[in-house]
Request: fold
Amino acid sequence: LASTFVLDSTFITGNSGVTCLSLLQNYSKMTQIMLHEMSHRYFFNHYEIGLMTGVEHSSFNYSPFERTYIGYIDPPLVRYPYQGVSETFTLGDYVHTGDLLAIELPESNELYYIANHQKRSMYDGISRGSTKCWEINKVQQDPYCPEGKGLYIYHQMHPSRCNEFKDVYLVQADGKYDWYIDRMVPYFDPFYNFEIPLYEKLEGNTRGRSEFHQRLDSILPNMQEVTDDPCSDKTDDYFVTYDWLGDGKDAFNMGYDEILSPYSNPPSNTCNGTASGLTMKLLGQDSLTGAITFRLYYNDAAALSDLPPAKPKNLKVTKNITEPVSGKFFPELKWDKNREPDFLGKPGIQGIYNIYRGIFTACSPDSMPQFLLVGSVHADSNTFIDSSIALYPEGGGSVGCADLFRSLNYRIEAVDITGLASLHSDRAIINGYTQWCDDSVLTGISHNQLPVKFSVFNYPNPFNPSTKISYSLPRDAFVTLKIYSITGQEVYRAVNNEFRLAGHYSVNFDGTNLPSGVYFYVYRASDFTESKKMVLIK
Reply:
């Protein structure tokens, strides 16, 4: 623009404007760039969530922080210290209606913004990751992907003091954790020849890290781009999800995750971990408009009296091996403990965890089986061995595997001392066969295609007390597989220079008689050598 002119009572100065190249992938990306650059009239800085972010981080519209910063909206504000016992609120779609609630936190210059993203606008890009969105639009904004609707909580602070010094981040419904690298996997674009980390949750940590726009360890810059395939033990089987752009599980929703409290994961805390005393409980949702009604409790005693425990988190199921030769195992469950006082109780008066199991004859993570109660444990426990059913890994048996495959699905709930029950946890899946069988018959999980390269990995990792080390041979070779302690002492020789035909193999390593710590396994086949780390936790 060569000269200044007026448009809708706004002066547009000369020598200004934005040019977008045709190299951009799609129309929504082009409009996002244009709106971002024009918005620098109001914003000097960039932020982590919203329109004023880096290109790939954008949610394609102003975040609540950005809207209020420029005075575009002035949301109702719940001031601290809070008054009364509780209040009820209803929010319509944030982008469509502008509905928003702001809540002061005990620390100065900290706020929660609560917004209901029903994604009624095709430019609501708050959640662009997940397997489904990758399949639809490769985590761009068009074509439209419906995943990730729900009630979002933004935590804003200025100046930023935590969360790697970011001014705003999401209080994600699926929690905060310590993470570890399960394995390195080939990058999903075959044009590039490098590996990326596949992260898994270790245990809940209210001061830990969440996936949304965060790297998951303090060393590597990577964020979560891929997740494990629960239907395969092969190292290269995974889903592209881009969880760091939203995995569809970050929002609070009816029937999924309905409670944020001082005891939940994530907790309703300030940046430095100070308890705010707030509890939020979802009450219902309008089936036509998507408007969500929720109650804010300002009194902790009232919230504990009225509400069940928060949904249990981080349920995992691993193999409790009872026969090392055949690999026969019982499913062993472990989860993060709930922290509500009326659930923990006292000796003789405690809440319980109920454990439910569903069974498929094929691995079906997108379907839901019928769940039946199989056991209960007291609140001071967070483990359960399902000794009512035994399974075997693939391979080594004398019968075919046809019709023997089973996929076991587990969920748990927490019931407090008054009988109020939480929502069920997310499910955990473990697969196996009802008899020791030969895996030359492909059933349920595909294992028998000849590998294209040498590889080795173990699962689970960390483990207690046993883990399975799987290795692949693209051609016939002599194989050696040894396990060493962190001091370099050999503790187990699984394979000792033995000839193997090309294929997939596995051995079970039992650490029952070994102390907790870091161990290394070294795999040698032909001229290939690889060493990997595993962690025994007791």
